[in-house]
What does this fold into?
Amino acid sequence: MYVYLIYLLIFFAIPVGILGWLVRKDLIRYKRTILWCLAFIYTMGWVWDWLSVKTGVWRYDSAETVGLWLDGLPVEEFVGFYLLGAFLLITVFLAIRRKLKHV
It folds into this structure.
């Protein structure tokens, strides 16, 4: 069972989809800034996770993942936390910014 993937879809993909639709104009407006943020998050996040797994600080249960691994990290980590997690933070920030702008 792909518990990790199901978890990511429920708690990241659904909220990102809803918030992304609500702030779609801002996502287009700030696309370059968002791409730089994603590049930073991918770089730092990958190094952090890779070092943590290699030094034994934490591990991923292979029975709970899809089974595709990139240098010791499950592919769900890249898609879920680095992409969807980053977009969740970005869309929450843009939604709060939009709300405060209209107050």
Notes: The beta strands are 69-70, 73-74.
